[in-house]
Design brief:
Elements lengths: L10 E5 L3 H12 L3 E6 L12 E4 L5 H10 L2 E4 L6 H10 L7 H6 L2 H10 L7 E4 L4 H9 L3 E5 L9 E4 L5 H10 L2 E5 L3 E11 L5 E3 L3 E6 L2 E7 L6 H14 L4 E10 L4 E7 L9 H4 L4 H9 L14 E7 L3 H5 L9 E4 L10 E8 L3 H14 L3
Parallel strand pairs: 1-2, 1-4, 2-3
Antiparallel strand pairs: 5-8, 6-7, 6-8, 9-10, 9-11, 9-13, 11-12, 12-15, 13-14, 15-17, 16-17
The structure holds adenosine-5'-diphosphate (ADP) and magnesium ion.
Length: about 375
């Protein structure tokens, strides 16, 4: 595949204007590019940073073409955009990421089937088309199991943990709304993720293995380097994935590690990822920098250096009051506030990264601080 090399002053069109689009735009602007963003919410985080803003739905073909006409390259900040519309954009505009990865990965079923065919270890799963299929799932996978909608889920939305028969009605109600996949619920020892960027000429730049903790299915913190010896195994799984799926730019593979140390791929995000945010301060290139280098056809660095170990904490709506009152006493916290118009308790409003020589100690301090807000 040939990449158009962009020059300074040319324009990057971003579909989606949330925090990922904002941080992408900031990297692009640092490198001298102009940015146009399309988002249905005119008070989204990107309104503050885009040179130009198109307020339209993600599947509004006229608006998408307008974005194409205004841009020299088109990229996206998240996977739940309309794959068909993206496909038609690829016919007339420069979309180096194509639409195939999006089409495949926005559906949890085709994602898991593709991973399985590629020889990647995934958690045992079943397709669920009818509400009554959950009975079959209970028999074959056993309790507890997870049920997840095929499309549109994020931050634990569109998924239910089915502990026992008592939860089956709730599971059936989810299937009424949308076809699902069910998967075995694993007792996790750890969660890790690997972020990488694929550039022109197929060069892959890997970030260090990240260790993640989720609370209520939302990322709570990321620690880098991960305190588990799984980096080379994870890279081998990522290599299988990149042979099977045409990925370009920055992407992240989320993994589970079970209690006997088995590694499973959970899901793939074909875009910059929350668990890679630490790279802004802790690495010589951020995941947004490498993404912009890739989609503008520049050469990627052959290696990404971790300059210092890091702990990244997400700031949800419920965290902000407590933490905001302390920011001015902690210049060592690298605080990012996304600028979302409405604040909700479980909504990601920002994050902060702490560079540290002792991730264990910093982790303990942060847990005490964040748990303090619940008292
Ligand atoms: P999302 O798209 O919302 O990130 P995930 O499938 O990654 O959805 O699930 C969110 C989190 O829920 C995971 O990071 C993990 O902590 C937990 N989880 C999801 N599926 C399982 C499972 N099969 N076994 C154990 N924990 C799971
Ligand atoms: Mg996930």
């Amino acid at each position: 595949m040939t990449f158009n090399k962009l020059k300074h002053g040319q324009t990057i069109g971003i579909i989606g204007g949330g925090q990922l689009g904002k941080m992408m735009a900031q990297s692009a602007q640092k490198m001298g590019y102009r940015v146009v963003v399309l988002d249905p919410d005119k008070s989204c985080p990107c309104q503050y940073v885009a040179h130009e803003f198109i307020n339209a739905a993600y599947d509004d073909m006229t608006a998408l073409k307008q974005l194409g006409d205004m841009s020299d390259v088109i990229t996206y900040e998240f996977e739940n955009i309309a794959a068909q519309q993206l496909k038609s954009l690829t016919e007339d505009y420069n979309v180096p990421q194509g639409y195939e990865a999006i089409a495949l990965l926005q559906d949890r079923l085709t994602e898991k089937q593709t991973l399985q065919q590629a020889g990647v270890q995934v958690v045992p799963f079943m397709q669920v088309t009818q509400p009554d299929d959950v009975l079959d799932v209970a028999e074959k996978l056993g309790y507890p199991f997870m049920i997840k909608t095929r499309f549109g889920g994020y931050d634990g939305k569109g998924q239910i943990l089915v502990h026992s028969e008592d939860d089956l009605d709730e599971a059936k109600a989810l299937v009424e709304q949308q076809e699902c996949v069910a998967e075995q619920f694993l007792m996790l020892e750890r969660e890790v993720s690997l972020t990488a960027t694929i550039g022109s000429e197929g060069r892959v730049a890997y970030f260090p293995l990240q260790e993640n903790e989720h609370r209520d299915q939302i990322l709570f913190k990321t620690i880098v380097p991960a305190r588990v010896d799984k980096e080379s195994e994870a890279r081998l799984e990522v290599e299988k994935i990149t042979r099977a799926i045409h990925l370009v730019g920055t992407f992240t593979v989320e993994f589970f590690v079970d209690q006997v140390g088995q590694l499973y791929v959970n899901e793939i995000a074909p875009r910059p990822h929350n668990s890679g945010h630490y790279s802004i301060e802790a690495c010589d290139y951020s995941q947004f920098d490498t993404h912009i280098l890739a989609v503008t056809g520049q050469t990627l660095p052959s290696e990404i250096q971790l300059l210092k170990p890091a702990v990244m904490m997400n700031l949800l709506g419920k965290d902000l009051d407590l933490l905001e009152s302390q920011f001015d006493q902690h210049p060592e916290w690298h605080v990012h506030i996304y600028g979302k118009a409405s604040r909700k308790p479980a909504r990601k409003m920002g994050h902060m990264t702490l560079l540290t020589n002792d991730t264990d100690q910093t982790e303990q301090e942060m847990i005490a601080l964040f748990e303090g807000r619940d008292q």
